[in-house]
Write a structure and sequence with these properties.
Elements: E1 2-5, E2 11-16, H1 22-32, H2 34-40, H3 46-49, H4 52-61, E3 63-68, E4 74-83, E5 86-94, H5 103-115, E6 119-125, H6 129-137, E7 141-147, E8 153-160
Parallel strand pairs: 5-6
Antiparallel strand pairs: 1-2, 2-3, 3-4, 4-5, 6-8, 7-8
Length: 161
Amino acid sequence: MLFVYLKGRAKMIIKKAEKNDLQKILDLQYLAYQSEAKLFNNPDIPPLRQTLAEVESEYQKGVVLKAVDENNTIIGSVRACYDNDTVYIGKLMVHPEKQGQGIGTQLLTAIEKEYQQKRYELFTSSKSKKNIELYEKSGYRIFREEQITEELKFVYLEKWT
């Protein structure tokens, strides 16, 4: 269990999610990814279509962390799995009302500590400037871009330790 204290704010705890947390994490995902959907004017982006069964599959294959506030409410989450000497990080999310308080950065640091490998990789949309900024501040660097559709380009970032 990892305890995190935010500057001038209430206590937050980051710990491994349990299987019975997954529906709440998926609900948070649907809420947190609304801003991404707005960037593309498309409510049908993959994180908003993901099912509980798919989240359960990710849970079985890797690590899912949750950030909870003093009321034990899930306010953030991140997932990762290890394959071929790389930790693949995904679905870093923070409740919209809690963004900008360092929670995402703490979750990213916590998931890296779960694996402590030499290489980490994640991706986001090229339009997600806040996400890219957060990742770059955490030591990630863009190493590849992939045009998915005319409007959607993924930016892949990596970090070596």
